[in-house]
Every structure is written in C-alpha cells, then in structure tokens.
Amino acid sequence: MAPAGKSAGAVCVLLFMLFFFMVVPVGAAVIDTSKDRWEWLGGYGQSFPGWGETTQRVETLDLVPRYNHIIFDDIGSGWYRGYHSILLELPVHFVISPDVSAMIGLNFLACYTFTASESWRPYLFGGGGPVYSFADIPGMGADWNGNYQFGLGAEYALMGEHSLLFEFRYHHISNGGSREPNEPLNSCKFLMGITF
User: Fold this and answer.
1) What's the CA gap between 128 and 63, in Å, rounded?
2) How many domains does the chain have?
C-alpha cells in the first residue's frame, strides 16, 4: 500500500472513532446510557514463539481507553446474577521489542459481569476488530491486520463510583491470509485500570 493510502486509512479510522463517541449524547432517549462508563487500562503484553505459528517475541506496553455500554441489566439470580455489556476499546500497543513503534486498534467486545458480590465482580469478555501496525515486525506481511481476543477480569469497588480493574487476556493478531507472509502474534496481556 502506498504511503498516501496508509495515511488516508489511518485518518478514516480516527474519524470513525470520533464520530462514534460523539453521535450518541449521554442520556439520549433512544439509548439508555445512564449506567455507561469510561474505563482506562494499562499493562504489558508479550507474544510467545512456538505458540501456534508465532515466530517473533514481541513485547508491548498497552494503553486501552474503553467505553462500557450496558445492554441487559439484572440478568439471572444467585451466583450468576449479572449484566451483559458491549465494550468499545481504542487500544494503543507501544511496541518495545523487537522494534520501537506502535500498533493501534479498534475492538468490539461482548462482556458478562457477575454481580453477586458487592465488592468483587468477575467478568468474561471476547471479541475483536482491526489493528494497524506502524511497527516493523518480521513475518507480519501487512500493515492492516485483524485481531481477536478473550479473557477474564475482576472489578474491585472503591469508595464512591470508581472501581479498580484487573485483566488477563489472550490476544491474536494476523492479516487473515490477505498477504504473505502471515505469521500471527499470539500473546498474553496483563492489564490494570480504573473506571470513571
């Protein structure tokens, strides 16, 4: 892809994300956003050569702003009582090895949070989206890639409306065979964060 095409693609992604966050005002009558919240997470990730077709050890420092929109509240009873939400993430992966660069993405994740406990709330999530890589990583044959991921986390309620978040996730990046070579990155990520 030509440099102008890369820039145009990156601008289109950023404009789409800005539009998405600005189009539905908080408290809109059509969609109930009264229980929605922003979350910020940060952490570390590493791919493992030999895990699937992964050949490169890639280390990242991750910054993940996330919007949590509740779809169904007060589901179930007993230990599995909880709510279903959609998570929209805009992750920035700062690559620190083997290159020093970055990857940016847009993730759409489904999440179920267990609310039987008032202080600790475990949750499960999974989904994916596009990833654009500025990094020069051997084996990645394309700048535009896709990713999927799943993981588990725990939310610890603090005083007031804030909570601490702790997450572990499996993360896969590849170009889906659209270009050669297509050596995927199979990674584990550990993240911590706070809700607003």
Assistant:
1) 16
2) 1
Predicted TM-score of the model (pTM): 0.82
Listed residue (38, 66, 37, 73) closest to 129, CA to CA: 66
- Is-contact 170 184, C-beta < 8 A? no
135 CB contacts (<8 Å, ≥6 apart)? Answer: 58, 95, 99, 101, 102, 103
At 139 the three-state DSSP class reads coil
Burial of 119 (0-12, 13-18, 19+ CB in 10 A): exposed
CA distance 109 to 51: 23
pLDDT tens digits for 122-147?
999 999 999 999 999 988 888 999 99
Residue written as token pair 């986390």: 153
CATH code: domain of residue 112: 2.40.160.20
Q: How far apart are CA 195 and CA 54, in angstroms?
A: 33
What averages of pLDDT result for each successive group of 10 residues across the chain (196 residues)?
50 55 47 91 98 96 97 91 97 96 97 95 97 92 94 94 96 93 96 96
- Domain of residue 78: give its range: 3-195
Looking at residue 183, what is its pLDDT? 94
